[in-house]
Amino acid sequence: MAEESLRVDGISKAYGRTVAVRELSLEATPGEVIGLLGPNGAGKTTAIRVLTTIYAPDSGSFAVDGIPCTKPSAIRRRIGVLPESAGYPLDQSGEEFVQYFARLFGHSRRSARGIATVLLKEVGLAERASSPIATYSRGMRQRLGLARALVNAPSVLFLDEPTLGLDPAGQRQIVALISEVARERGAAVILSTHFLDEVEEVCSRIIILNRGEAIAEGPVADIKRRAAPQTAKVRVPQEVHEDALSALKRAPGVADAQSTNGGQGWISVTLKGAPDGSENGLNAPIRALVEAGIPILSFELEGGKLSDAFLALTGEARE
Amino acid sequence: MTTLAQGEVRRATALQPPTKAGGGWLVVAGQELRDIWLSARGPGIVVGTSLLLSLLTYLAASNEELNIIDQRDTVNLVAQITMALAVAVSLLFTADCLSGERERETLESLLVTPVPRRQIALGKYLAAVSMWPVLLAVAVPYIWVIRESEGVFTDAMLGGLLVGTLLVIGFASLGLLVSIYSGSNRLSLAVSFFIFVVLLAPTQLPLGGWFGDLIVQINPMTAGSTFLHRAIVKEHGWGEDVDLLIAPVVWAIVVSAVAFVAAGRLRLQGSLGR
Question: Is residue A53 assigned to a domain?
C-alpha cells in the first residue's frame, strides 16, 4: 500500500465559465481525518465528486492508494462515499440495503450478509436492521449511509455534510463514528462540513475552500492561530485610567489604546500581533500594565476561535 | 452506537471484495426484479391485464349476442392489447429507472460503486423488460380459450412473441435513452410516453394510399401490428409479410445500440430539463 491513502495534485473543475474547484492539492494518510470547510458554493461538494470519480477533473490528477484517477473503477473499489444528498429506498430494510451494496462491490450473498450484520452493529442499527428504511429517523439514515460506505473496507472515506439536519445527539453519534472509523479501520476520512465544532473535535487537519480555491490548509491549531486576536479589552481602576492609557500606548506590542465610551475604566487595545504568529504579542498589554504597577480588574481577548479564523479567511467577517 | 470487539472489526475488514466484480448487472437486475415483483407494481399490472383480458374473453367466448367480432379478430385483439401493454409498461419502467434514481437522490451512491455504468443500465433494463414474458404468459390461457383452431393459437403465440419481443426491446431502450439524459423523472416519463403514443396512434387509423403504406412500413408499431394482424386474421404465412418486420428489427437494434452507448456516459445530472 502507498504511504498516502490519497494524493491530490492541483485538480480543477469548472462548469462552463464558473470555476468550482481551482488547483486543489492535498494528501491524506491512513487514519487521518481532514476537514473540508468553506461557505456555500465554495466547491466542497464538487471537489468530493471529482475525487469520488463522479466528475472527471478538467486538469490536475489524484490517486487513491497509488491508483491514478485514470482508473476510476479501480478507485471506486478503494473509496467509501456518503454523498451530501443521499437518498434511500424507503421500502427496503437497512439490512437489505447494506447487503445490496456489498454485493455491488463483488461480495457473495453470504459474505454480504455477514458484512451487513457487522456494519449495522457498528453503527448502532443492529436492532432495527430488518425494519424498513422509511421508519428510520434522519440520524439513523445517516448512520445507515455510513455503514453502506464501509462495505468495501475503504482506504479513503468521503463524507459530504454527514451531520446536516441532525439534532445535537445525532451529530455526536456521527462524529464519534467518524473517529472510530479512522482509528480502528485506519481509513483516511475527508469530511466536508459546516459545523466547526465537529471539525475541532475530529479533524487533525483542515482545508478551507473559498470560491473553489484552498485559502488555508494545516492543523486546526495553526489555522486558529492565524485568527489570533487583534484587539483586547482591559479594565483598570478609574483613578489610574489615564496612567494605564499612557503605559499601554508606550508598550511595544500595542498599536493603539483608547478609552471606550462606556467608561468605568475600560480600555480598548489594538494589538500589533507577533510577527511569528506566536502568542507573545497577546501578553503585551498585561506586561505593560504590570510593569507600570497598575492593577488589572479584567482582561478579554477578542477572536482566537476556529470560527473567527474561518470568517476572517473567507472574508465574511468584513461583510 | 456500539463499539465492536476487535475480533469483529478484524472479521469485517477481512471480508475484502474480490479483485474483479463481474456480473454487477446481475446484482442490479436481481434487486430491480425484487422491486418490481415483490412490490405492488408488477403484480398490480398483471392483475389489471388479467381483468382486461378476462372481460374480452368473456364477451368473445361465453355470450353469442355480445360477441360482435370474429374469433380470429378476438385472438388478434388479445395479442395486440397484451403486446401494447407490455411495450407501454416496459417503456415507462425504463423511463423511470435512471431519472427516478436521480430524483430520489440514490443515483450518486450507485455511481460510486465499481459496477460500470453500462452494467447498471443493463440490470435495470432487463428487470423492466421482464414484464413482457409474464404478460405473454398471462395471455396464453385467454388465447387458448377463444381460439378456433390449433393454427390460430400457434400463429398468435409465435407471432406475438416475435413482434412483441422486438417492440419491447426497442421501446424499453427508448425509455432508457430518455432516462439517461433527463434531469427530471416527469420529463423522462412524459417524453417517452409521448413518443409511444405518437407511434401507436397510426395503428388505430385507417391508413391508405402510398403515404399510409409508407407509415405502415416505417413505423415499428404499425408494421408489427399489421404483421400480427395478417398472420392471425388473414392466415398469411410469415414469409409473405417479412418486409413488415424490417422496421421493428431496425428499431430494436438501432435504439438499443444508441441507448447502451449512451449508458456508458451516464452522468449524475441529466442534461435535459434541469
Answer: yes
Q: Indicate if the pLDDT at residue B268 is higher than 80.
A: yes
Answer whether B33's CB lies under 8 Å from B127's CB.
Answer: yes
| B64 C-beta neighbours (distance < 10 Å), count | 7
Provide the domain limits for residue A186.
Answer: 6-88+136-219
CATH code for the domain of A206: 3.40.50.300
Q: Do A264 and A292 lie in a common domain? A: yes
A275: pLDDT confidence band, cut at 50, 70 and 90?
A: very low
Which of B2, B105, B109 faces A124 most closely, judged by CB atoms?
A: B2
* Sheet order of strands, A298-302 included: A254-259, A266-271, A231-235, A298-302
Q: Is A124 on the interface with B (CB under 8 A)?
A: yes
* Band of residue A20 on the pLDDT scale cut at 50, 70, 90: very high
> What's residue B3's pLDDT?
46
Best residue of B105, B112, B115, B266 to probe chain A, by most A CBs closer than 10 Å: B112
How many residue pairs from chains A and B have C-beta atoms closer than 8 A?
Answer: 107
Would A232 be classed as within a structural domain? yes
Smallest Cα distance from A152 to chain B, Å:
6
Instruction: Give the HSE-up count for residue B211: Cα atoms under 13 Å, Cβ half-sphere.
Output: 3
Q: Which residue of B has its CA nearest to A154?
A: B13
Q: Do A160 and A281 fall into the same domain?
A: no
Taking residues A267-273, what's their average pLDDT? 80
Distance CA B115, CA B20 (A): 10
Question: CA angle at residue B108 from A83 to A21, to 5 degrees?
Answer: 65
The 10s digit of each residue's pLDDT in B243-256 is 999 999 999 999 99
pLDDT in tens, A128-172: 999 999 999 999 999 999 999 999 999 999 999 998 888 888 888
Q: What is the DSSP string of A16-56?
A: TTEEEEEEEEEEE-TT-EEEEE-STTSSHHHHHHHHTTSS-
pLDDT of residue B20 exceeding 80: no
